[in-house]
Amino acid sequence: MDPSEPRWERVELSDGRVRLRAPRDSDLDDIVAACQDPEAVRWTSVPQPYGPAEAEGFLRIVEDGWTSGRAAIFFISTAEHDGRYCGAIDLRLDGEGGGEVGFAVAPWARGSGVCTAALRLVCRWGFDTLGLGRIEWLAHVGNDASRRVADKVGFVYEGVQRAKCHQRGVRYDAWVAGLLPGELR
Amino acid sequence: MIPRPVPTIEAEGLLLTPLSDSDAAAVVALSDDPETRAWSSLKTVRSPADAEAWIRERLARSDGMTWAVRDTDTGQLVARVGLVRIDEADRAAEVGYSVRADHRRNGIATRAVRGAASYGFAELGLARIILQHATGNRASCAVARTTGFAYEGTARALFDNGKGVRHDYHIHARLADDPAGRVPAPRAIEPVEIGAGRLQLVPWRPADAPDVDRAFVEPHIARWDGGPPWAGIADADRWLAARTTGWESGAMVSWSVRDSTTGRLLGSVAIKDLDRRPGTGVASYWVRAAERGHGVAGQALGAAARFSYAVLGLHRIEAYHAVANTASCRVAVRSGFPLEGLLRGSLRLADGVTDEHLHAQLATDAP
Per residue in A127-143, pLDDT tens? Predict the structure, then answer.
């Protein structure tokens, strides 16, 4: 496959409440604010410190992901937050019919099922539209909040991969779980 | 996309060299085997032209390097080994290999994998190399463990076999500072003594063989054992060796049950068939004839079960016994293992096939 050839139509996904949409210029301040959150810093590989330049870099990564056909990166918004940026979720393709999900929800949108709904939307799209045979979830060992979300959607725990993730120069063990097409809840 | 240079390296009596077009015939011979076709990227190679295309594709890779593995004396290509999916930012890669069918069981895969991995850690500065194989490929599992790649989990439906069926794969990995030698038993359990009132549960020792031999000739223990006729002290040695292996492999925890004051052997208790992912095990116990009728089995079973819930994280322990073994049934029920069912014709004893009772206790039941 020529990696410059997009494999998908760029889409937006919605379940009526949670919407996965393209970035807007007005999201910049919210991205910067979300990346100051200690939970995001602890469990994800966001650069530190994080300012407008890093947020603009992230927007370029989003565009590059879609045009290269390697990663579908969505911004999460909800009706109750008036369409405001509530986090990001991505699906990276492995080129072998599998994908890996990653997500980070802004502190102001946590605890209301937004992340679970977003993950469900992305996995449904990955299986039904992209025809994936497997979607993988990885998180630093100990990231219980992320694991609860994966559990709810139906991911099956598969093991610990040692030193799998690296975050700002340090490697961490990762929990790994897989979701097959019939398992999405 | 700049092809990655492949240097020639030596690996324990093998020579790892770059592939060249002149290897096409040898690559066809390498791929001409059901095992290789089933599991490797050589599955499409059938003719010299296919082999040349495969070699060119390998040579052009910027994210992978493939070596021809040659016998140092003859120069003959006996295998291929490669580092693929090399990700410099992530400092990660995957090792893959195939060995010619007529050169297997000579440790070639082991030496080639060790050589490629050493190169990856020392020269590429990798932090983590994975070795993944379809779950049915037991030979690769053995190579992984022998070369220091620890099993980390099973990724379900990871890769398509080329026929539209996605197979489960074992994920093994070695980190830069892991030793290159054999991976130790994955989940060894530290043998521990447990005090339980007047009983002391003591992990079996080799010196217990005479006691074990005397116990197994007692009719009520021999009758329900289910194994071949007891042949004396050599069987006792074997029986004890299996207890030791159980701790080392994490498959069974077992104890001699002794009088805590005198140390006298009263009986035996074990939780075997340990499967710590679902969190289940199977209880097994016997008591010597002279010590029966004092609740020894029940107390020992309770102590072993509590250990297994608390330390091993089990959530369910089963107990099976021949229906006619009413003593065992009473122990199970009185120890909080209610009867769950009748397993018809499930046990073969010396005098024929019999039905068994299944009892079980959940961690949440335990007193």
Answer: 999 999 999 999 998 89
Which pLDDT score, from 0 to 100, does residue B168 have? 87
Question: What is the side-by-side order of every strand in the sheet holding B280-287?
Answer: B194-196, B199-202, B253-259, B265-275, B280-287, B316-322, B352-362, B339-349
The interface pTM score, or ipTM, of the predicted complex is 0.87
Within a domain: A184: no
B134 interfaces chain A, CB cutoff of 8 Å: no
Q: Is residue B162 over pLDDT 80?
A: no
Residue A178 lies in a domain: no
- Cα nearest neighbour of A156 on chain B: B156
- Together in a domain, B215 and B142: no
Domain shared by B142 and B86, yes or no:
yes
**Residue whose tokens read 């410190």:** A49
Average pLDDT over residues B89-95: 95
Among candidate residues B175, B209, B242, the one where a domain is terminated: B175
Could you give the 3-state DSSP secondary structure of residue B254?
Answer: strand
Hey, which bits of chain B come out as E strands? Answer: 9-11, 14-18, 65-71, 77-87, 92-99, 128-134, 150-160, 166-175, 194-196, 199-202, 253-259, 265-275, 280-287, 316-322, 339-349, 352-362
Q: Say how many domains are in chain A.
A: 1
pTM for this entry = 0.67
Shared-domain flag, residues B225 and B87: no
Residues B227 and B170 in one domain: no
Does B203 lie in the same domain as B102? no
Which of A96, A161, A171 is nearest residue B159 as measured by Cβ atoms?
A96
CB contact, 8 Å: B9 with chain A? no
Domain membership of residue B253 (yes or no) is: yes
* Domain of B214, in residue numbers: 194-362
Examine residue A89 and state whether it is found in any structural domain, yes or no: yes
Distances (CA, A) of A160 to A2, A18, B155, B175: 33, 31, 11, 13
Contact B157 A158 (CB under 8 A): no
Per the DSSP assignment, residues forming a β-bridge with B201 are: B194, B257
- Least CB-CB distance to A158: which of B91, B128, B154? B154
Is B128 at the interface with chain A, CB within 8 A?
A: yes
User: Residue A79: in which H helix or E strand, if any?
Assistant: none
